[in-house]
UniProtKB/TrEMBL annotation:
The chain crosses the membrane at residues 20-43, 50-68, 74-92. The keyword Transferase applies. The keyword Cell membrane applies. The gene is dacA. GO terms for molecular function: adenylate cyclase activity; ATP binding; diadenylate cyclase activity. This is Diadenylate cyclase. Residues 93-258 form the DAC domain. Gene3D superfamilies: DNA integrity scanning protein, DisA, N-terminal domain.
Amino acid sequence: MLAGIRTFISNYTNGMYFPHIQIIDIIEILIITVIVYEIMLWIKNTKAWMLLRGILMLGAFILVAWIFQMNTILYLAKASINVLAVAAVVVFQPELRRALEKLGEKNLFSNINPFDKNRENERFSDETMEGIVRACYEMGSVCTGALIVVEQAIQLTEYEMTGIELDCKVSSQVLINIFEHNTPLHDGAVIIRGNRITSATCYLPLSDNMTISKDLGTRHRAALGMSEVCDALVIVVSEETGLVSVASGGRLSRGINAEELRKELSQIQYRNSDPKKKKFTIRKGWHR
């Protein structure tokens, strides 16, 4: 019986090659799997997905030309391959830059060190957080518009230079005074680094996302645009409705309450906090 089984297996496996798999091969497969998965997530969460679809359609067209031996099209495709490679780098430049920045943000040593979450690892204090929350809802109650950028790992020096340099401790009174109507500093954004306000009247990049509701004004578009190019948490107080909104990672949460804002800030309070634990929601107000 056993001999018959061996003969059966031998007949079906004869001539087949079974590679010898070592530990290093398994490690390489795991590394490649993680890289491909991260690239797919990156493409899915950025505007690169639409550009990639265009490239795939162009590739399909060239494949059809190769099947039917359309020599002129194949010659043009071959001659322009170098130009297309450079063009792809230029077109994907914002996404590539953001991907490299995200890679630089990762700190493996702090993530594996369980004793690293101390005062030195704190981005800002509880007092700063409460000052921001209090200022936002006091301004919202009287419909005073505001735009507050809370810096994380990526320094926002290039955006600070567009405004007026400050160096003062964060407090609700200072923030309210900055955004008070008809004051020299009320127009533009405030940038907060740690427990200090570093700059006011800063210009932020506007989002070019065409799916954004037409009801959103310049402040909300600037908040979304800023969150698309860096890891900052951007807080918006609407001048029309007094609602407080938060933009992060290219997504917007509108009309949040004080406890929700406090939770958003607490999730970035420490440098080694896990960004994957943070959940973004697009509220109904997005479509109104």
